[in-house]
Design goal:
By secondary structure, the protein is mainly beta. The chain has three helices and 27 strands. The protein is globular. The two termini are 33 Å apart. The relative contact order is 0.14.
């Protein structure tokens, strides 16, 4: 572990880097593999519709943790690319015939299961569980054999939603070691009817599931027991060592998109996190249905895609904002007659293996400003505490003078609203508090602004 002063120096550098986060629209045109990383939001790995094809290769590598430790991991890489954690975000369209080729470089069999997908084939025939000579199940599905084996999976993405893909072979080891990723299926039976917003996206085949194309975010929650990872790393050098005893399993790290705070709010593709490409910062603008608002016309919410690949429920807690739960596990919340069963919820309690699709939006309800001040007496400076994200003014888009000796990461009077796992022991890194699955919703002031 780094010395304490090195760790806090690193925190300061990471926080400084996050000043440069900015929003960008998701690119609609499909490409063969991962897009140029967007600084904020979901980065899709795409392939041409209607027959997208992906190649995933098992790799080993290391990730950086908030307490200064590094951790040995397994992962799926895109094509023949280097190790990354988590695996690529595979994005397809409803109705696509999806092909996933798995290349296995490990000394044990590996597979992929696609929960929520129907009629999955492996090498052209229906997938089957695997058994050893004693009729003991060894895999939930058809495997890629050890030491260079391959298997080709295919399925039709019959319905939209957010899904997990993960190893179906010895999952208590292989999934825990990092063999997982996200699969996103976009609907095709609902179309944009708003000429003022280009490329409106939808969570499901429902007009009320529309969201702003540049406000789509992933919250992929996972965990690590470092002793399990240490044993697997040792076995790479000495295969005769016994397996890790799962009776002793106890998570000590919890991650969001493969990172812990403060790394979680750094850009996608941050250079100091070369194997952890996905940030978790959510950047939004004010919800605004005024058609005369020009570039500030913002009539749809954003979409948060929650996924849990851990072993216990994760109660995620976005401060100050309810979300509208539109679907779970790739199913829209509606009855057989398409009656709306979506609901608002504050804390999102995601069970193991679950996914939730939640619409989120920020309202400037009171429209406070210097000309419409907050109706309270502002305390003297000596009676105030200034956080590192405060810009010196309580008003969106305004900055102010901070006391001597104060510093700020605020650029342009933007707001920061924290969101984190509400099981507080899970926002630690082997006992280091205020790390783990923590992120922010950043609210930028109306355009044009000088935010970077």
């Amino acid at each position: 572990m780094y010395a304490l002063n090195h760790r806090w120096l690193r925190w300061g550098l990471i926080a400084l880097i996050t000043l440069f986060c900015s929003a960008a629209s998701l690119i609609g045109a499909p490409v063969a593999q991962a897009q140029t990383p967007l600084k904020v939001g979901i980065v899709c790995t795409n392939s041409s519709s209607p027959n997208p094809s992906f190649t995933l290769t098992t790799q080993v590598g290391y990730i950086l943790l908030p307490d200064g430790n590094t951790m040995y991991m397994w992962g799926f890489s895109a094509g023949n690319g280097g190790f990354q954690h988590p695996g690529p975000v595979l994005c397809v369209n409803e109705g696509d015939t999806v092909t996933v080729v798995l290349h296995n470089t490990f000394a044990e069999a590996v597979s992929i299961v696609f929960p929520g997908q129907e009629n999955v084939l492996a090498n052209g025939v229906p997938v089957q569980p695997q058994f050893d000579g004693n009729n003991k199940m060894t895999s939930l599905t058809t495997v890629a054999p050890a030491n260079g084996g391959s298997v080709t999976y295919s399925f039709v993405a019959t319905h939209p939603g957010t899904f997990i893909y993960e190893s179906g072979t010895n999952p208590q080891k292989q999934v825990n070691m990092g063999l997982f990723g996200a699969l996103i299926v976009y609907p095709t039976h609902v179309s944009d009817s708003n000429p003022l917003i280009s490329n409106v996206k939808y969570a499901y085949n429902r007009a009320d599931s529309a969201f702003m194309p540049q406000e789509e975010f992933m919250v992929l929650l996972s965990e690590i027991d470092p002793y399990q990872h240490q044993r697997v790393e040792q076995q790479a050098a000495n295969p005769n060592l016994p397996d890790f005893n799962m009776n002793n399993y106890h998570a000590r790290y919890w991650l969001i998109n493969g990172r812990g705070f403060p790394d979680s709010i750094a850009d996608n593709g941050a250079s100091f996190l070369p194997t952890q490409p996905y940030g978790a910062l959510a950047l939004v603008h004010e919800f605004n249905t005024d058609t005369n608002a020009g570039i500030n016309y913002h009539p749809y919410p954003g979409l948060a895609r929650y996924l849990n690949v851990g072993t216990e429920p994760y109660p995620f807690h976005p401060h100050g904002n309810n979300g509208r739960v539109m679907g779970r596990d790739g199913h829209p919340l509606e009855d057989t007659g398409a009656e709306d069963l979506s609901f608002e919820k504050y804390a999102i309690n995601i069970g193991p293996g679950q996914t939730w699709d939640v619409l989120v939006q920020w309202h400037d309800a009171e429209q406070y400003s210097p000309s419409n001040p907050v109706p309270v007496v502002v305390p003297q400076v000596a009676n105030q505490a200034f956080g590192q994200f405060y810009g010196g003014s309580p008003y969106l888009g305004e900055t102010g003078t901070l006391p001597p000796g104060s510093s700020t990461l605020n650029q342009c009077g933007e707001f920061y609203i924290i969101a984190h796992n509400h099981a507080l022991y899970q926002i630690t890194s082997w006992g280091v508090n205020m790390t783990g699955p923590i992120t922010y919703m950043r609210v930028d002031p109306p355009l044009p602004n000088n935010c970077q």
